[in-house]
Amino acid sequence: MQGLYAFNGTESDDFGKDKRFLLTSIDNMYNLYLLNISLLIEVQKKAEDYLIKSQNKHLATKEEKNPNRKFVNNEVLKMLVENEQLQAKFEEFNISNWELDGEYVDLIFKAILKSDLYKDYTETRTSSFKEDKAFIEDVFKDIIAPNDKLYDYLEDKKLTWLDDLPTVNTTVLKLLRKVKPDSSPFHFIPKLYKDIEDKEFAIKLITKTLLNQSALTTEINNKTTNWDSERIAQIDLLLLKMGVCEIQNFPSIPTKVTINEYLEISKEYSTPKSRIFINGILDKLVKEYESEGKLNKIGRGLM
């Protein structure tokens, strides 16, 4: 959708630049994931450094001399810190933001120290893997993910990251919830694409939509004769083009799945009434294609 929205050309143009934008944006989602994981590691390192500095104070208190190391020794954090494959990924994708922007590590670390989560967690000095995991889950969900300053930082770095952030944060949480003491080192190195078909789908969808804009526009106009075209939101028209293109050109994708996906996107990016509008137009077209025998779907449960 972003690539199509940014497109400024005609059906006869070379779409190489637009495909590159699409694939680069998808790749950047993986960078964002690694950046979030590396933040957890840097927070653990910050905690270790904080304890060392407190112990070396000239007038260190008894508590500072013998600190609670529960957070520093958190087993999930240690898994991340000691994961050589993950470190290799950081190097491969040049994930070094926190070396220059360490103030955000400080920001998150201080927020953790002030939280009731930390207070409750450090009431004891020992814990199980289960408790360690639950604590890191809660820290990420309640402190890191909703942090406004971190959000602004990510927006400044890459504009497309704001759209990717919910998906990336959900992925991080899922991996944290599923991690076990004996999990593979590759547990925290998920694949960007499930398989090559995912990547091909993205390229085919943007290409087919761009190549057939006139025909798609005509198809939509025929179903919106009672609507003032100038009052139809630009995003709605774009989502309709993508939806119609997907219904026409991807026989393995159920029409219900297609419609539901675009309704969800409209809720996020368009007007409050867009959902009803898009659903009505796509539903009409599907019924028309069915009656005319034009709906080319294969497999079970695809209507």
Q: What is the 3D shape?
A: elongated
Mean pLDDT: 90
Low-confidence stretches: none
Domains (count)? 2
β-strand amount = under 5%
How many extended strands? 0
The Cα radius of gyration reads 25 Å
Structural class determined from secondary elements: mainly alpha
Indicate the percent of residues in helices. 55-70%
Distance between the termini: 24 Å
Total of DSSP H or I helical runs spanning 4+ residues: 16
Order of helices and strands: HHHHHHHHHHHHHHHH
Tell me the major beta sheet: none
Q: Which terms summarize this structure?
A:
single chain, about 300 residues, N-utilizing Substance Protein B Homolog, Chain A, elongated, transcription antitermination, RNA-binding, transcription regulation
Account of the 3D structure:
The protein has helices at 2-6, 16-55, 62-65, 75-81, 84-92, 97-100, 103-114, 116-121, 129-144, 148-157, 161-178, 196-211, 213-221, 234-249, 255-269, 274-291. It contains 16 helices and no strands. It has two domains: 14-178, no CATH class; 212-291, NusB-like (N-utilizing Substance Protein B Homolog, Chain A, Orthogonal Bundle). The chain starts with a helix and ends in a 12-residue tail after the last helix. Helix 2 (16-55) crosses helix 11 and helix 14 (234-249) runs parallel beside helix 16 (274-291). It is mostly helical and 303 residues long. The chain is elongated.
